[in-house]
């Protein structure tokens, strides 16, 4: 049995499981970013009798759903390393109150 080169090793280890992991990570990042952005955008419309609260809830659900699907596709297409960068940026924005809402 021969020893694998670095390029061959990356191809073997980053195959199906790398793409699945990137899809899951992208889905989580999209869910968080989409829900946060959707709720903030929907809630900014305001209105009388609590209509802003209702639109924020709808924005949260729609944004989270679209972010989940879009994040999974992003993870599958771009791979684990790029998706990890996006995930870290989303989480840093979530935990740092001085940063604006994730885009």
Automatic annotation (TrEMBL):
TM helices/strands, residue ranges: 12-36, 48-69
Q: Which UniProt keywords apply?
A: Membrane, Transmembrane, Transmembrane helix
Q: Does the keyword Membrane apply?
A: yes
Work out whether the entry's keyword set contains Membrane.
Answer: yes
Q: Which domain of life is it from?
A: Bacteria
Q: What is this protein called?
A: Colicin V synthesis protein
* Naturally occurring in which organism (per UniProt): Burkholderia pyrrocinia
